Each structure stands twice: as structure tokens, then as C-alpha cells.
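Milestone 3.1: sequence recovery, worked example.
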């Protein structure tokens, strides 16, 4: 099993975004623990539903930050969020239908999180910082 821990590299330097990312990572870790827990599917599906809602909330929160600063990459960044939510929903359906194991969802979400935060969200946080400094 992959280890899902907070890493300094995930920090984008924006308090609110970093806070929400930590909560999101906690949710991934909780779901990851279910892989070996042998919990009932109903509980796992509840946790997956919580993660979907949190992701939706967090993306909206980032998108509002983007609009606040007239972020030039708003559309492209928003598209990444939309694609992730659609993919996540597909994965949950496949899991529910016993097409894929839970590990597949955990692996997918964690690698998406690692890539998206360190690149796409980092660019946004850098932009906000420059804007707020009056640049
Ligand atoms: Fe983002």
C-alpha cells in the first residue's frame, strides 16, 4: 500500500488552500485505511461520497479565489477540477459494481492530488501572492 502522508512539497503557501488540502489528504488516508480494514461496502461508499462533496467544495473555493484575482488560467484550471470530479464519479461507480478494487481509487486520487497541488495549485498560489503584494 502506498503511504499517504502530508509532505512539505504539497504546501503551496496559501493558508486557506493548504488547510483544505490537508483535510482532503486526511480523507484519502481514511479511505486508504479501509482497503485493509475489511469494512462493509456501505461504509466505504459513504466515505467516498464525503470525499466527492469535499472535493466539490474545495474546487469551488479555489475557483472563487481565482475569480477574485482575475486569474488568467481560470478556465484551464477549472477544467482540471471538472475532469477529476467526473473521473472520480466513474471510479466510484466501477467500485460499486465490483469492477475495480478500492485501491485503484486511492491510487488514482492520491497521484492526481500530488500532481495537481504541486503544479497547478502552486501556480495559482504564486499568482495570488504576487497580486496581493501589489504586483
Ligand atoms: Fe486546483
Amino acid at each position: 500500500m502506498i503511504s499517504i502522508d502530508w509532505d512539505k512539497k504539497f504546501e503551496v503557501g496559501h493558508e486557506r488552500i493548504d488547510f483544505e488540502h490537508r483535510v482532503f489528504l486526511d480523507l484519502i488516508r481514511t479511505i486508504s485505511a479501509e482497503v485493509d480494514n475489511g469494512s462493509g461496502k456501505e461504509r466505504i461508499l459513504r466515505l467516498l461520497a464525503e470525499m466527492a462533496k469535499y472535493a466539490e467544495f474545495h474546487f469551488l473555493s479555489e475557483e472563487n479565489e481565482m475569480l477574485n484575482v482575475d486569474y488568467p488560467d481560470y478556465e484551464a484550471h477549472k477544467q482540471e477540477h471538472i475532469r477529476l470530479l467526473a473521473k472520480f464519479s466513474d471510479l466510484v461507480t466501477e467500485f460499486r459494481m465490483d469492477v475495480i478494487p478500492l485501491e485503484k481509487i486511492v491510487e488514482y486520487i492520491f497521484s492526481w492530488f500530488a500532481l495537481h497541488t504541486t503544479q497547478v495549485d502552486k501556480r495559482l498560489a504564486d499568482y495570488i501572492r504576487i497580486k496581493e503584494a501589489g504586483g
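The longest helix spans residues 102-132. The chain has one domain: 13-132.
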